[in-house]
Design a protein that fits this description.
about 190 residues, mainly alpha, 3 domains, two-stranded antiparallel ribbon, about 55% helix
């Protein structure tokens, strides 16, 4: 059977099993009754997520599709200023971008939480989320009700803005999101 916890797939049912055992201990019932109660509760949470909007985990893709569909710059790249203007101009798009910002922060926190070491077992997901919000202040500001900024858009949709490219007659420079530059030289014989 497939189990979900807080709208996300619970691989192997590990978290569901833990919650069912806790429920059985707290309510003095057998494991089967506790498991049914936990699954029923999670189903209602999943229904609430579905009623609130896009399925959890898809809002970054929805925002990326929206931004990709906008008119491009002359070099074919995405115009971040135009994308920010369009998103901030529509309450529906602004809601999608806020959900995407929340999803981005949650993903960052989950990466940190999943990479913890045994000696750091007292670190909670909420601690990781605070660190993610601190390290991505533009995204956190947008998620907490602010307008979308270019910095937040580029952070959430980092794959769309992975690098910028400029060239002159002798070199081509690609600057990646982490500010590493790679130069390709064109040699001319005279």
């Amino acid at each position: 059977m497939t189990y979900y916890v807080n709208g996300a797939l619970d691989k192997g049912g590990v978290e569901t099993d833990k919650r069912a055992k806790d429920y059985a201990r707290q309510n003095g019932c057998d494991y089967t009754t506790a498991l049914r109660a936990v699954v029923r509760n999670q189903q209602s949470i999943s229904k609430r997520y579905a009623q609130e909007g896009p399925e959890p985990g898809n809002t970054i893709q929805i925002l990326g599709g929206l931004v990709s569909g906008l008119p491009k710059l002359s070099d074919g790249s995405i115009d971040p200023a135009a994308a920010v203007s369009v998103v901030n101009g529509s309450s529906e798009y602004l809601d999608i971008s806020r959900r995407a910002a929340g999803e981005f922060l949650s993903n960052q926190a989950a990466k940190m939480f999943g990479s913890r070491h045994a000696h750091e077992m007292n670190i909670t997901f909420e601690d990781c989320l605070r660190v993610a919000m601190r390290d991505n202040s533009a995204v956190a500001a947008h998620y907490n009700g602010g307008k979308l900024t270019e910095a937040a858009l580029k952070a959430v949709l980092w794959t769309k803005f992975k690098y910028s490219q400029s060239s002159d007659s002798r070199t081509t420079v690609k600057t990646y999101a982490n500010n590493c530059e790679f130069k390709t030289y064109v040699l001319e014989a005279k």
